[in-house]
Each structure stands twice: as structure tokens, then as C-alpha cells.
Amino acid sequence: MKREHGREGKIVTADKAIATIKNGSRIFIGSGCGEPQHLIHTLAHSHNLTDVIIFQMLAHTLADYLNDEHFRQRFSVKLFFVPIKMQQAAFEGKVDYIPTYLSQLPQLFRDKQIVIDTVLIQISPPDRFGIASLGISVDVTLEAVKSAKTVIAQINPRMPRTHGDGFLHISDIDYLIPFEEELIFMDQETVEVETASRIAQYVKELVDDGSTLQVGYGHMPYALLEYFDNKNDLGIHTHMISDAFIPLIKAGVITNKYKNFMTDRAVATFCMGSRIAYDYIDNNIQFYFGTADWVNTPGIISKNDNFISISSALEVDLTGQVCSDSVGRQFFSGTGDQANFIRGATLSKGGLSIIALPSTAGGGRISRIVANLSAGAGVATLRADVNYVVTEFGIAQLKGKSISQRVIELCQIAHPDFRSSLIDAAKENHYIFKDQLPPHAEDLIFIEEYKSRTTLKNGKTLSVRPLLPSDEIAYSNFFYSLKKETIYLRFFHSVTIFSRKMAQEHWAHMDYRKNISLIGSVKNRGNKEIVAIGTYAKLDDKLAEVAFVVREDYQGQGIAGYLFKELEKVASANGFEGFFAATLPENKSMINLCKKLYSDIKITASADEIDIWMKFAQK
Cα-flanking dihedrals φ and ψ of residue 29, to 5°? Predict the structure, then answer.
């Protein structure tokens, strides 16, 4: 039909507009919390229509009709994402799921692979120039409007007017239906507070001030934002804005001012939340809502330096494959654009990606770190794309690591109850050596208190933390980077081989209380490398034997003294009253350091060895 440029003749009732739809039509409905509920109800009650295909990204209202057999006989529902309300219907075959990247949907519309006859959308009231906004649902809806033969729009005064790509002139709309109703609110499902706070503690370690964030769809990623209140000047380039962002913006945590791309703007494709978010984004120039084929593509994402993707998963297998859209054969969400944001983060200068998930499901009965993905589970993110995986038990870094290393990293952050069985399964799968020891079957959250940072004399930051099983390769690299003279001073004899057995024996005997090693690492071209190790081991009930080794190019930076005092803090907290050290007479730096740090000191000497007893100061 020929489109009129004014409102006259276009303003009709929903019944009249829906009556123009023919049998056999293919309809796209605006998605998420911005879907036109009034138009959907009218469509569902239009009993003359039959053989109609409905396409929708995030569907809510249609869930009310899927148990109606008469509705299902007339309408076929195809979804690009399976939200919570649709999960059972998808499992029962009442809706059809189309797995695709959301960023590719607009091209499918343009290429007529998905043909759209009619589109039902919801818009803000047009301004005096006749321009309305798609509001909280720009995403793939804009291209659907451009591709459709007929456009039917519900004008809702409660729809926010958002800035970005989502503006439409009423000349591009065939029928206008004024109807005010509250938008759909997305309830933020509660997550277990202790689990979320612990995961957030680890995630925050990876997020530097000034980073630009993407937060993936799901309850856990958004729950983590609550704990970001001590961060500074974060930016946003994400697919969805939720209520969780708003307090951080108001508090000045999210400022977007250090973004090098779309500076001063939070970039997204749609918004799902409540009036908290809807009222805040209304006519707010701080937000830019773009189309999914622009916002969610790796080339655009990577324009943001220091870009960090935070998303979730249902399962991660021991090789690093990520399933996020189904539990076995039951679909729980959709493909979305998780892979695009992860790849965009990889391409970003200083960027990284994080998969954050609880270690268990089903009240602790089921491990989310699994030997093999469930039968029928889809791989949303390939093992080669995954960088960091975080649970409430720690951080696993997979990027650039072998299968055997990945197994140890992931078993280390699995729930303690499942670590041994995961190691056994990995051996059966021939992923690791048969003599591989499992990580400690203990919750090591207490060792978080042992972490610290200091600035060295050369300006670099030294990060200190306990040695872990996953450090085997890095530990070996550190050993082989040392000169033979340094090794001799540490071990009292020449050691030329640092075997897997030696590495495993080292950490296998650590209980992080009576026996512990702290490693000091610095960043080198985006990777952290070990430059120092300090160790103490129980000698008797009051004394622990202490030893250090610092890589030659980092000696003279104050590292040994810093590690010494950090080890003292740990030892003192675990009931020790002093240190004992045995060193060679020629190790003058160790002897002088002990004298410098401890006033209550006793030294005995022989031709072959210097023994030093140091007592901690009374507190």
C-alpha cells in the first residue's frame, strides 16, 4: 500500500489493524520488554486468522497462549531465543527455536531468508516532527521494520524515547494504534548471595578501572554488578541494559569517559528491567541504542580498548567448551552473541573475556564443571575462544593452554566435592597423565586473604598469591629462567632438572597453613610471569623454615623483603612465632635481609652453612 506522510488515516484500533493481516502471513513481533502486548493479545484473539508464522526474539506475552490448542493450530511460533516463560513450551514442541547469532538476524531479513509480511512494534509518541522511537527494543526490530510489507505500531506514552538508531518517522508506519499500558518488567531473579559475592570477588580482580564492560544475558552476570561499587570510570558496550547498571551510573562508577570508542555513551541494543531503567534512559543522551548487527559484531566491539566481556554458562567441560543455551536437549536461552563479544574482547587492545558461573546446580548435587557436556548440549563458545572461567572457588585461565593444563585449571575451581572424580574422568578421557594428583578437596577461600600487591622500584606491579596446582608450567618456566648460581644458593647444590614429579610434590604437600609458597608475578605483554617464590614449611610448633628465590633481573627491587613480611603475616595467622632459615655463607644478601627485617635474631655459622633464627615481633 502507499504510505501516507501524516497521521490522518493511520490511527486505527488494534482490531482494524490486525484485520489487515492475511492468512499465511509471516509476522515479526517486537521483542523483549518492548513487545506490543495490546497488539499481541488482539492478534491471538483474531480467530479468523490461520496458518500464520510468528517470529520473535525474546517473547513473553505469547507464553500465555501456548497451552491453547486452538491458538497453536492457527499460529506457528518461531523464537530466536528461549526465555524462562517459554522453556517448557520449547521442550514440549509448542514453539520452534531457531539458533542464530542476533547480530546476523538483520542480514537474514535483508536477504529474505526470513521473509516478513507484517511487523508489530511498540513506539514512543511521535514528536512534533513525526519522529518516534523504538525505545527499549532497537536490536533486530529496526531491520524487521525496514523489511516488512506492513508496519503496525502501538503508540505507548510509557515507552521511553531513546537515542541512537531506533528513530522512525510515522511515514514509515502503516497503522498507528494509541494504547497506553505498562511495559513488561523483567524480574531480577535472586541468586545465592554468598556465591555471587565470591564470584564477584574473583571477577573484580580481572577488571581494571577504566575498562569497558559487556555483561551477558543471565541472572548471575547482572548480580555481579552490585559488587562493582569500588571500581572507577567503567564504560559500557553491551547488548542489554538492565536495572543493575543504573546505581553504578548514578554513583559515578560507570562514567564512559575513558572509552576510546563512543566516548561518554553507554552503548546497547535493548533494555530489559523495570521503571528504574526505563525512566533513567528516557531521552538520556548518555545512552546510545544501536542495531544488533552493529553493536554486537567483533569488529565494532574491538574498537573499545580494554574491553571485558562477562557472560555466563550452564556447563563448561574440562577442555573449555561452553554450553549456555541448553541443559542437554532442553533449551534454556539462545545463542545470542556471546561468541561475538568474546571474540571482540580477544581483538580489543588490552581486552579479555570471562565466563562466570556457580560451580554447582541442583542444590549442590550437580557440577557445572563437567568431564563432558550433557548429551544434546550445544556448544555456544568454542574451547579455542574461551579465556577466563570463574566460579566461587577461583579463576581458571584457559587461553593458550593445553588440554592437560585446562583440566587442572578447571578442576581447581570446581566444587571440592567433584574435583577427584573430574580428575578420574579426565584420566579416562586421556586428557591428563595417569599420575596427576587432584587439587585439594577443600574450599580454599581463606587463601584470598594471602593475596597482595606492591609497586616495585622499577614501577611495575608485583602481584603476590599462593602457589596453585595450575601453576605447574609457569613454575617450571620460572625455574629454568634462573641462573645456576641462583639455584645453587637456593638448594645448596646444583639442580638441573625440574620434573613434573617435583612440581606436583611441591604443591601436594601444601596445606596453605603449616606449609605454603607465595609466588610473585608481573605482567609481561599481557601475560603474568613468575619472578619470585617464597616458601615456609613447619619446623616445629613454633617455627617454620623459610626460603626465597628471586629471578636475577628482578633482584634489588625489594621483592624478597616484601615476600618475607607477607609470609610472616600468613605464618603468624597460623600460629607460628618465628622463622628459621638455613643458607650458604656466600649468600650475603639473604643474611643481610634477615638482619634488616628482624631485631630478635640468632645466627650460628659453620664452614658449610649459616643457620638463622628469627622471632616475630609481639603484637
Answer: -115, 130
The whole-number pLDDT of residue 478 equals: 85
The answer to whether residues 83 and 58 touch, using CB atoms and an 8 Å cutoff, is yes
* 493 has pLDDT over 70: no
Please give the grid coordinates belonging to residue 350: 588490552
Conformation bin of residue 320: beta by default, left when phi > 0, alpha when psi is -120 to 50: left
Residue 422 CA to residue 119 CA, distance in Å, equals 49
Q: What's the fold here for domain 193-428?
A: Glutaconate Coenzyme A-transferase (3.40.1080)
For residues 560 and 405, what is the distance between their CA atoms, to the nearest angstrom? 29
Q: What per-residue confidence (pLDDT) applies to 603?
A: 94
Residue 21 Ramachandran class (φ > 0 left, ψ -120 to 50 alpha, else beta): beta
Burial 484-497 (b: 16+ CB within 10 A, else e): eeebbbbeeeeeee
List all residues 6 or more positions away from 70 whose beta carbon is below 8 Å from its beta carbon.
Answer: 47
Between β-strands 52-56 and 26-29, what pairing exists: parallel, antiparallel or unpaired? Answer: parallel
Which band of pLDDT confidence, cut at 50, 70 and 90, is reported for residue 492?
very low
Q: At what angle do helices 500-508 and 472-481 cross, to 10 degrees?
A: 120
**Residue 73 in contact with residue 65, Cβ under 8 Å?**
no
Domain residue limits, the chain: 14-178, 193-428, 445-615
452-457 long-range Cβ contacts below 8 angstroms, 24+ apart: 452/566, 454/558, 454/562, 456/522, 456/554, 456/557, 456/558, 456/559, 457/556, 457/557, 457/558
At residue 195, the 3 state secondary structure works out as helix
With b meaning 16 or more CB within 10 Å and e meaning fewer, what string describes 547-580?
bbbbbeebeebebbebbbebbbebbeebebebbb
> How many Cβ atoms sit within 10 Å of the Cβ of residue 584?
15
**Separation CA 166–CA 121 (nearest Å):** 12
Q: What are 443-459's pLDDT values in tens digits? A: 999 999 999 999 999 99
- State pTM to two decimals: 0.89
pLDDT at 209 over 60: yes
The CATH number that domain 445-615 falls under is 3.40.630.30
Do you know the residue count of the chain? 619
Query: Quick one: 434 exposed, middle or buried, by C-beta within 10 A (0-12, 13-18, 19+)?
Result: exposed
**Residue tagged 593452554 (cell numbers):** 401
- CA dist list (Å): 207 to 225, 326, 454, 565: 12, 28, 18, 27
> What are the phi and psi torsion angles at 412 (to 5°)?
-65, -30
Please indicate whether the domains covering 14-178 and 445-615 agree at the CATH topology level: no
